Please model this.
Amino acid sequence: DGGITQSPKYLFRKEGQNVTLSCEQNLNHDAMYWYRQDPGQGLRLIYYSQIVNDFQKGDIAEGYSVSREKKESFPLTVTSAQKNPTAFYLCASSTGTAEPRYGYTFGSGTRLTVV
Amino acid sequence: AQSVTQPDIHITVSEGASLELRCNYSYGATPYLFWYVQSPGQGLQLLLKYFSGDTLVQGIKGFEAEFKRSQSSFNLRKPSVHWSDAAEYFCAVAGGFKTIFGAGTRLFVKA
Model:
């Protein structure tokens, strides 16, 4: 079955460390997204990518970085510059940003905690 | 600018009772509208979507939603709630490259 796989499900980061969250999809979707979810704040867009080797900042990109070297993969790195990284991170994909009518497919998320 | 408001942070309904979750949006053109559901610790699942045609749309799990342009609303309804419907529900509006999500409404179901 097609879908999005996020790993790990839980991740712990020490102060000053960079960590990378994995997101892989086998839906043949062009567009991929990273969202951050905090209680009571809904979902906030971190980065998105419409095509391989191209990505754009979202609303809260500071302290994060991404790459899109393969269509299937869109890893997110949370750098030490992100001062409050504890959150639930969701990866999503869609057929294309020019065709928003179909909605998103989401992964099951990664919960990142700073220790 | 796009925006989505879900006025109710949480709602409690009895099992078997009807449900209506409210959503108001702001968008300059005809929007693409969505409802998603999220169980604790999980990702979001698409319940239903509207982008044209009949203003009453049917979704999965017995949910439906009605688009009312005059009220800028897209409320989610279910005639009879089951205990398994307890979750958080998000309304979303899409236009161009961006989808904006509401803050969510948490549904509690009491026996």
